[in-house]
Specification:
The chain is mostly helical. 53% of the residues lie in helices and 0% in strands.
Length: 165
């Protein structure tokens, strides 16, 4: 079966999409609009990528370039690992607790709240008070977790992931 023009455009669009995402994190790669047309902007983006990854900078996508672009894209878009600094799987931080971990949780709440309009900021004072409990309930609701108002490992992991988005 011959390689059709539609297949070719689809593959060009795919590689352009990968390069577009990679360019958001590396200014050395020119931004290319995924349109399925292998024009000068795509050639420049491919060449820049090839230079960065020590491939021959031909501007053409051979198997080695394709594989390297896909690998870089997958690495960049992989789900972030949860930050496993929460004390233990069974530990729960709740209203009335205080200390360094509460400061961290409150700072995380404010960071997440800066990106989600429906989450309320809290005072960062190291005291797990009613405002912190309510803010945690808001996070749990957004994450579709049980709304206990306490920070368990699932709530913590969701918050860490939300901070990395």
């Amino acid at each position: 079966m011959p390689y059709t023009e539609a297949q070719k455009r689809s593959h060009i669009h795919e590689i352009q999409s990968y390069l577009y995402i990679l360019a958001t994190q590396d200014a050395r790669i020119p931004t290319v609009t995924p349109d399925g047309i292998y024009g000068p902007r795509t050639v420049s983006a491919v060449q820049a990528f090839q230079k960065i990854y020590n491939l021959p900078a031909t501007g053409e996508v051979n198997r080695a370039t394709w594989d390297a672009i896909v690998k870089a894209y997958r690495k960049q878009t992989a789900e972030p690992d949860a930050l496993n600094v929460f004390p233990s799987a069974g530990y729960v931080l709740r209203e009335g607790d205080s200390g360094a971990l509460v400061y961290i949780v409150q700072a995380m709440l404010n960071d997440i709240g800066s990106r989600y309009d429906n989450l309320t900021p809290v005072a960062i004072n190291g005291s797990f008070n009613a405002a912190t409990t309510n803010a945690i309930r808001g996070v749990q609701q957004a994450a579709d977790l049980p709304q206990t108002g306490a920070v368990d490992r699932d709530t913590w992991n969701w918050m860490v992931t939300a901070m990395q988005c």
